[in-house]
Amino acid sequence: MKRLLVYCLFFISIISCKKDKTAYFQQYRITYNQSDNSYIATAAFFQKGTNNLPGLTNGESVTLNDKTSDYQDKYFYTWEGKGKINGSFVLSKKKTEFHNSFSLSDLLDFEISYPDTFYKSEKSVVKLKDRYKHSDYLTINLIHNGGESSTGFLSDSVTYVPEHMKNIPEGPATLRIESRYEHAVENQDQNSGGTINYGTRIDKTIWIAK
Known about the structure:
Blueprint: H1 2-18, E1 24-33, E2 38-47, E3 60-64, E4 71-72, E5 77-82, E6 86-93, E7 96-103, E8 112-113, E9 117-119, E10 124-128, E11 137-144, E12 147-152, E13 157-160, H2 162-165, E14 171-184, E15 194-209
Parallel strand pairs: 1-15, 9-15
Antiparallel strand pairs: 1-2, 2-5, 3-6, 4-5, 6-7, 8-10, 10-13, 11-12, 11-14, 14-15
């Protein structure tokens, strides 16, 4: 009986040693920039159940469409390229691969109308065609030397009134519209969860005047 117990304990210890001790929450993000037909994608990996970003270790890697990242710091892996791509992020750990796919080609391009000049003393209207065919996470930012103002597209247009413009300096500014989608990863690392966040962005140069 004692010998059987020893064998069982030995078998359990072998199994536990083989089990991967670090499970990752996978966080992927990719944005298509309609302004110049480019994309930027990032990947990060959180230790299961924490906010810790331990970084991938030896024998672990991540690719986007079979390509390693263009650059990385300690925690984030980044890819850049051209086109509205479809593809898959693949996290490789020893002999296991976790494939998680996305599709940018299904996203609508923005069709917008806006004034080239926003006058601080007048109303300025930005209109977006087919607003409700875009994602639920849709924002418009007015980026300028003094910072930026942000609002959500609740309908097919956003109106900037003098009250909104009074603290915005005169000069060049960027009108940025961005839509986002997010869903859970299809293939989790030991039930650790994860998300893929993807969307479209467009930047338009405008002028702020009195």
